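Incident log, structure service

09:12 report received: a user says their structure output differs between two submissions of the same chain.
09:20 pulled the input from the user's history:
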Amino acid sequence: MRSISMMFLSALLAVISGCGSPNSTSFRSMSHAYREVVESYSNDNILINIARASKKMPVSFLDIPSIMGTGSVSANAGLSATVYSGNPGSLGGFLQPWAGAVGLANYIPTASLSVSGGYTFTQSSLDNATFMRPFLLDIKPEIVAYLTSNHAAPKSILYSLLVSSIDVVNDKREVVSSFVNDPSSKDYLGFQRALYILVAAGLTAEPTFVKMPMSPILDEKLARDSFGMLVGALAAGVTLDEVSQPGRPKQFRLIKLMPDWRLCLNKTDGEVLFGKSLSPENYCTQSYKSTTAQRTATELRALLSDGSDSGLKNLSIKVNLRSTRNIFDFLGDIVAMQNAENPHIVKVFNPELLNASDSAKVSDFPPVPLFVMQKNKSVGKPLTSLNYRGDTYTVPDHDISESFTKEVIVLLSQLLTLNKISGSIPPSPSVLVR
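09:34 re-ran on a clean worker, output below:
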């Protein structure tokens, strides 16, 4: 009997000691599968809306606000035996071995282990005013600063998506030239040339402050007499600013400095490319030394502009940004054009590659497609594929030397994340998926 008990305990211990490994393996495999699904979910969410925009259809976004995991492990152990008794009809005879058998025989320990697990996630629609409001508003320069600081993509790619138009304004606030970021326009090459020159001139976003008036204009006597009353306002971050008006005595006004962002050019590169044509307000407050524009100024002028000198002075460059919604429209137009009967591929040049070496030239880096999504075509190495309204859209797995498709997807993912402000994702699920 002792040996039987030891056999039973050994089987039970084997089951219990084996519980950790299968469960851990199952959890890791489920987590790995979940990560892959979420990655595909996010990419498909972006690409399906580009496909919708290519057909001039409304865009619609979904998100996963919560994931819940469940798992269980159960172990069972038992003992079965075949008993040969001399007289099974009585207790004493049951325990008495049959003459042809050698005692109790054929004891078989049994053990079983079962592991189960799964995920339940909720799927919510972002078709609400909280999400759509920033989605439809023009992108702010501070967002440009966020995207350029993490180097998610070259600036020429970033600005090709974000910039809607470039205006050249004279000192009378009149627009003397305008370049529109419309790939279907016959003047699109002019926009690209203007954009590349601005990128070579160090186009970036910098923080600044805007004076917000907090009071009417006060003369000097009234400001002195009211100084006691203004102490509380001055302690709250409000400043007394002098207002200069020709032919009038000193006047003052309470103002508050509000943080803001603006797009500007690097003065060192800008003066090489534009000479003295631009007014000082176009340049950033801090200037750095760069070699790109200085080494390639002549080549850039020849390749990226018509080489003419208008002779105008005190010009201002106004860069207009588009909304995230318009970026999807822009990419939708590109997809429609490249899959038309007479395909047209929008290609982009990256001036930052000129920093690769001192001997690099613009001609060493030909432009490559900005974004590629093939419709109803076989692709040898696809990044992802999806179906929409009877058509199959496939995104090739290109590296940066073949197209900037991956960089565009990364930028769109970051822009959408910045649009998901508090309250944009509903707390209660729209769809519960089991």
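09:41 both user submissions now match this output. Likely a transient worker issue. Closing.
09:42 reviewer note: Confidence is low (pLDDT under 50) at residues 302-309. Residues 209-262 form one domain.
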